[in-house]
Amino acid sequence: MILINLLPHREEKRKRRKAAYFTGLALGAVTGLLVAGLWYAVLEQMKSSQMERNAFISAEIKKLEAQIKDIANLRAEINALQARQKAVEDLQTNRNIPVHLLNELVKQTPEGVYLNSIRQTGGVVAVTGVAQSNERVSEFLRNTLYNSPWLEKPELIEISAGPASAGRSRSYNFSMRVSIKRPQAPAPVAIAASAAIAVKAP
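Request: output the structure for the sequence above.
Response:
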């Protein structure tokens, strides 16, 4: 017996394919929404972590800025202390220079040389005197150049022979310049040490 299907089977197949298509679309949409939600959650987590790191970095930067400001203030105080110390040392040195100058001139003046005047202008001393010979003047210049820790750069300005007198040898009038050598001031060890300790302190 032959059975003949008179129902519209093509229409049924078309409906089933259409239903399957829409079901796939729905599943795809749901899957896409789930993936997008997960990605959004991951991004939010990353954003939150980055904001926490930024907040931590900002706090550390503020701490460093405060420390830098303290260091700058400390350096200014150190510079002020060093300036005051240098002023005191300069006053001390300048107070003792005339004593050392006279002492050195006495020590370096050879026999046969007599000083008439000594005039200091800043760091230069002008000396005039009388010598028994040119060799005595040369010896005086050598002594101030090589043997004195306080005098340097001697320069002969003028030398002239004086009139000869009966029974006495000819004398020589001379004038010269010599510079005062300032001793090196000791390094401010105490200030430097205290500054280093203060900088290292938290």
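The CA atoms of residues 44 and 50 lie 10 Å apart.
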